[in-house]
């Protein structure tokens, strides 16, 4: 028997109830309209009525498949081909180089106006609904978090970073800072500001040089 899929379900996977034949064209129109309106209005001003009007369907059609605005937003983002950067960090042999390149690539999503708007929208949706929050965590945050932690563990095995460091805390500081910048609509997010954060975090991870033993008489050489 094959293993069950670990990918969180979307509206594409949910079968409508008896007597409720679903139009795939309508479903796709709803998701496309949602993405457009997120960019134009943001999550707060987005409404089911507005989505229905843009998609050319009735509000009842939307509520038939999605119980809330947040769930529509989650599906609209989840079903995009490549909504956010999810590639794991490279393994070039330099953890500093690999981590910086990975964070730079991720930061570009956060400074891009369209993607930043979708990040804010799904964050707001997740704050309203625990099920939406779990799906988004499994699909995005967990993937990003696990990939970077694995890279840091590999660096620890190679002696590049301290093996006793809390890698989860380091990754949370990186992802949390990016989320703060985008949700607070900070205009100062840039590669330079990201590098300043990485300078602090990576310096704390470095293996301290071994100190030379003092002479037996206690005098320093």
In total, how many beta strands? 0
**CATH structural fold name of the largest domain:** Tetracycline Repressor, domain 2
Question: What is the CA-based Rg, rounded?
Answer: 23 Å
Form type: elongated
Name of the CATH architecture of the largest domain = Orthogonal Bundle
Distance between the termini: 69 Å
In terms of DSSP E residues, the strand content is: under 5%
Number of helices: 9
Low-confidence regions = 1-8, 14-20
Count of discrete structural domains: 2
How would you describe this protein?
InterPro entries: Homeodomain-like_sf (IPR009057), HTH-type_TetR-like_transc_reg (IPR050109), HTH_TetR (IPR001647), Tet_transcr_reg_TetR-rel_C_sf (IPR036271), TetR_C (IPR011075). Residues 1-10 have a biased composition (Polar residues). With 221 residues, the chain is an all-alpha fold. The protein has 2 domains: 24-78, Orthogonal Bundle (Arc Repressor Mutant, subunit A), CATH 1.10.10.60; 95-205, Tetracycline Repressor, domain 2 (Orthogonal Bundle). Helix content is 62%, strand content 0%. Helix 2 (48-55) crosses helix 3 (59-65), helix 4 runs parallel beside helix 7 (130-157) and helix 5 (95-111) packs antiparallel against helix 7. The chain is elongated. The model is unreliable at 1-8 and 14-20 (pLDDT under 50).
What keyword list fits this structure?
single chain; 221 residues; mainly alpha; Arc Repressor Mutant, subunit A; Tetracycline Repressor, domain 2; 2 domains; 9 helices; disordered N terminus; transcription
């Amino acid at each position: 028997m094959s293993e069950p899929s670990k990918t969180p379900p979307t509206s594409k996977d949910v079968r409508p109830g008896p007597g409720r034949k679903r139009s795939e064209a309508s479903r796709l129109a709803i998701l496309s309209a949602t993405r457009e309106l997120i960019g134009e209005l943001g999550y707060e001003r987005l409404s089911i009525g507005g989505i229905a009007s843009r998609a050319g369907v009735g509000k009842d059609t939307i509520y038939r498949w999605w119980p809330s605005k947040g769930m529509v937003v989650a599906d609209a983002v989840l079903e995009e081909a490549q909504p956010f950067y999810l590639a794991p960090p490279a393994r070039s042999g330099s953890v500093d180089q690999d981590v910086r390149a990975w964070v730079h690539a991720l930061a570009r999503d956060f400074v891009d106006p369209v993607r930043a708007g979708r990040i804010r929208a799904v964050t707001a949706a997740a704050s309203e609904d625990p099920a939406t929050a779990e799906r988004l965590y499994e699909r995005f945050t967990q993937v990003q978090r696990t990939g970077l932690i694995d890279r840091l563990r590999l660096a620890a095995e190679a002696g590049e970073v301290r093996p006793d460091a809390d890698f989860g805390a380091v990754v949370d500081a990186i992802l949390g800072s990016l989320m703060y910048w985008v949700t607070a609509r900070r205009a100062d997010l840039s590669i330079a500001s990201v590098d300043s954060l990485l300078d602090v975090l990576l310096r704390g991870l470095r293996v301290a040089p071994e100190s030379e033993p003092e002479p037996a008489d206690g005098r320093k050489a």
